[in-house]
Amino acid sequence: MKITGKYKFGFDAWALGLFVLVMIPNLFWFGVPAPNDILRTVSVTPVTDTIGAVLQVLMIASLCMVKNKNAGKMQLSPLIIGVIACLAAYYTGWCLFYSGIVGKLVIGLLTLPPCIAFVLYATDRKNLPAILFASGFMLCHVVFGVVNYM
After folding, report:
1. DSSP letter at 2?
2. Alpha-carbon distance 46 to 69, whole Å?
3. What total of structural domains would you count in the chain?
4. CA nearest 19: which of 123, 131, 117?
5. What is the pTM of this model?
6. Domain containing 16: what range?
7. DSSP β-bridge partners for residue 7
């Protein structure tokens, strides 16, 4: 189904895979509390959190369901290498967090790299709607992390 001249509706399994990889540590965290778990506090940024949640849904929907016809086939590119590096940094943050290490660096690793990964992926796929939603989500997620935990 055509959206505009260069966009169409279509399923992007790689985008869904990226989302799942980002969510796995979160799902683990929901079930298994970490030592020194500061993330289980009430947020002081509820409006920003709500806006961020809406943008996150729109980001994932646009990543998974909107395709740019000019994006070409998925291949290893500098942007995709950046996505992989961001995932590695994000998982490193979770490992540190579950090791009982909590601080600005760890909160930064839990906050920024997954957002950058989504922006880089959307950029590689030439998906402007996803870039916009991912950038908005990143702003909200960083505000949440900084205000609540730094």
Report:
1. B
2. 38
3. 1
4. 117
5. 0.93
6. 11-149
7. 68
